[in-house]
Design a protein that fits this description.
Length: 287
């Protein structure tokens, strides 16, 4: 299958290489031709890089892997070359200013796209890129999931229809990872860290349920699996950013957890849901 991957950071590069290892032809798009993810790894021969979005028009299946902060801008440009391809959203995040999920942005900017889904799970980009075993939840309709199993056959994929829950899991774990890193430095001890962490996750799950998500989704790879990986390791950019904030240091790169925390609070307020722990952590971190 001919696969398009939009986004050339570490995660976009990892997924492009995984699609290639799965036996597909891959067209990998980078904004302004910049490919700054995992530059020390050798590019597979069946991955072609481009800065021209029109080169992706003939691809049969699309993966969007741009950061949440640039998702809307990228999707607007994609519409000009869209031709009924299934779209798999691989960005874990929310738009901080609006509290909108990536699927809501996609619906707004490419309303003719009816076949879209979400990929979310416990994945550090470098390990995925080099083929270390891992898995993900793939949520969406049958056409999206079938294409995803071809595009990413080298990953263990757990099928799910709850794309709302899968998105909130990804957003929530980013916020929780940031909080966990911060609490590693600032909490009074492990007991307090566990208390705040659990109460924050309960608020996130409550938002999801109010939006129609299934609690069962939070037990899968996109839920407890991703939460365990990202909220317990300094390898996680969000976790290490939380540590940096606690120490009063600068953090590097795009930190999705910051946008996630703001977005979750924004969405909760629109739904009339109280999130005292998330609000308190946002204020303590000066976000």
């Amino acid at each position: 299958m001919k696969i398009a991957v939009f986004g050339a950071g570490a995660w976009g590069t990892a997924l492009a290489y995984t699609c290639a290892r799965s036996g597909n032809e891959v067209i990998h798009w980078g904004f302004n031709g910049l490919f700054d993810g995992l530059t020390d790894l050798e590019k597979p021969e069946n991955v072609t890089r481009t800065a021209n979005m029109a080169d992706l028009e003939t691809c049969e299946y699309w993966l969007i892997v741009t950061p949440a902060a640039f998702f809307r801008e990228t999707v607007k440009k994609m519409r000009a070359v869209y031709d009924n391809q299934p779209i798999l959203i691989c960005t874990k995040g929310m738009e901080g200013e609006t509290g909108e999920f990536m699927s809501e942005i996609l619906n707004a900017e490419i309303p003719e796209c009816k076949d879209f889904g979400v990929l979310s799970g416990p994945q550090f980009a470098r390990e995925v890129a080099i083929g270390v075993p891992t898995g993900s939840t793939i949520a969406g309709n049958e056409r999206v999931r079938a294409g995803g199993h071809i595009a990413l056959s080298k990953l263990y994929l757990q099928d799910c229809e709850d794309f709302i829950g899968a998105q909130i899991c990804g957003v929530g774990k980013n916020a929780e990872s940031l909080i966990s890193g911060y609490l590693t430095i600032k909490s009074g001890g492990e007991n307090e860290r566990a208390l705040i962490f659990t109460r924050a996750w309960d608020e996130i799950v409550n938002i999801a349920v109010q939006m129609g998500a299934s609690c069962g989704t939070f037990h899968g790879l996109c839920g407890v699996g991703d939460l365990f990986l990202s909220a317990t390791s300094s390898t996680s950019r969000n976790f290490s950013a939380g540590e940096a904030i606690a120490r009063g240091e600068q953090y590097a790169g795009t930190v999705e957890g910051i946008f996630a925390l703001r977005g979750l609070i924004h969405r909760a307020q629109k739904l009339g849901i109280k999130t005292p722990v998330l609000i308190e952590m946002k204020e303590k971190m000066g976000l």
